[in-house]
Amino acid sequence: MCPEDRKIYIFGGFDFTMSTDELFNSVMLIDTNTYKATSIKEPSGTIPSGRHGHTATYWKDGKLIIFGGENERGVFLNDLYVFDLRTLTWSSPTTYGRKPIGRSRHAACLSECGKRLYFCGGFRQHTVMSDIFCLDLETMTWSDSRHFVARYDHVATVHNEKVWIFGGLTQDMGRPSEVIWFDLRTSAVASLRFDEGINEGDDEDVLRIGNGRSRRGTPNPDKRAGTHFYAFCGSTVIDFMTHGPAIHNTETSITSFDLTEQRWRTLADSTCDIFSGNAWAYVALSGTTAFLLGSALYPESQYGIEHEVICRILPIDLKYYGAAPKQSLQPPTVPQPESLNADISALFDDPETSDFVITAIPDGHDGPGPTSVAGADSAGDTTQPIPVSDPIYVHALILQARWPHFKRLTNSRMREYHRKRMHIPEKCSTVRALLSYLYSDTIATTVSVVTVAKLLVLSNMYALPRLRDLCISRIQDGFDVANAPTIWECAKIAQEDVLRTSAARFCLRHWGRVVRTKAFRGLSKVAMLEICEEVDLEGQVVMGWDSHDRRHGSRSTASANEGDTSGAMLDDATSEADMAMAEDVDSDGEAEFDGDSAT
Length: 599
Description:
Blueprint: E1 7-11, E2 27-31, E3 36-40, E4 44-45, E5 55-58, E6 63-70, E7 76-84, E8 89-91, E9 107-110, E10 116-120, E11 123-124, E12 127-128, E13 131-136, E14 141-142, E15 146-147, E16 155-159, E17 162-166, E18 179-183, E19 189-192, E20 206-209, E21 212-215, E22 227-233, E23 236-242, E24 253-258, E25 263-268, E26 278-286, E27 289-298, E28 305-306, E29 312-317, H1 337-345, E30 356-361, E31 392-394, H2 396-402, H3 404-411, H4 415-419, E32 421-427, H5 428-440, H6 449-461, H7 465-475, H8 484-493, H9 497-509, H10 511-514, H11 518-521, H12 525-532, E33 540-542, H13 547-552, E34 558-559, H14 576-582, E35 590-592
Parallel strand pairs: 4-8, 30-32
Antiparallel strand pairs: 1-2, 2-3, 5-6, 6-7, 7-8, 9-10, 10-13, 11-12, 13-14, 13-15, 16-17, 17-18, 18-19, 20-21, 21-25, 22-23, 23-24, 24-25, 26-27, 27-28, 27-29, 30-31, 33-34, 33-35
């Protein structure tokens, strides 16, 4: 079956009608829309010889792959042909690697990715083949064969990196009902033998699904004498059992086997006989419709005599029997989590739906920095009025679900709970970034690195581990001269030692420029001393050419040695003079390290 045009293509075979056993190498097609059969006349290219017992596999882009079979001289073939259904052209591509042994009545199946074609079993000179091998369709290279199971006249499919086979005959003409698979990852062979003695009333092993019955045992163990045709629908195998060749056998059924759950399910039994009056020979599948191809029976005999030409086609709607491929019954598309985040984020700072207000310190106010965040959430009693930012409108339910600190505050019925209002003594931009994260579970790209550094302090104080990870990820590649001192200070407060060390190295590497920034001047006296102490005891400040040296054509060096108090850049009496001393290093000056701190 070609899924692109819903046409069934038939190649080869031999003539029963005139009892000549003539082998064909022609191509026939049946249009399943009009049920009209047509012979493709005079195809071009390298036309294969007549044969039977070969396999025909639809690949892609209108390509049909023919392999193996037996010719009119009884030679078992191992040649490969490709028929282009669009141009009606035959070709015999060059293949590489060791070709497999010629055979007929084998099975072929395409990998789930469509890049490999697997062959297994078959018949050759009274011997049943038991190997499996693969053709890489991208490189046209044969793989080495592996041992599988001796079987012919069977069918195969690939599911979940396993080759599964159904039906067929063994060396002694046995008709096994077991399902066997070959694991493509481990080369292991396994089988599932069905217990034919399972009790229909065993609730532990019987599961009703819709109008069908699902069970691990074979659903028709006493009716295996019929002729079975298998169609593969994703992870489901459909078994159409038609009337068998034995005169006494009149039983029919339609069953399915789920490759994932490894369970049989009866879809229809002999009470719904749609196979009578014809002898069926082939099955093809298109979407959710299976097509049985066969011949009519002469009415003269009680049991019928086959009129051995393909002149009957039976369409079977799998959806009617509850056996449609799972992939064709997809549920409605579920919105992605991103859309849910967007919907919740849209509620942030919405005064119409808000039931709680949060205020902060205005960004323009030179209030306390991150060191002031000691856990106070309200302004408290102060002798000096603290500026308050515009209100930020939030929703108590969202904050309770996302912010453990807020949940504890409301559960304890503190003053903020009754007033529906809370003040956080941090800059408004930092507080807004915190609340935005609680609504969206992310940090907006518009938030500056400095604000993210201050947000890192809040993530530590409020025990928000995901926010902490987002902050670290955003900061670690965002160092520059202007923000490095602030990052260092915030990392120190948040006890992020790795980030603190990285920020300190950056500051000391660009010391001449860092000490001239507003961020460095905004550090407290203690913080200035501590950032200087990031240099080890053997550290030096190597000065570049400053303006005085440029005028006098000389280069100067300043060093701070252990025990040399006169060389300390800052002391407890830090003043404008001390700052000027630090700035005696020109803008190209940097700190040199020894030992583990070497740069």
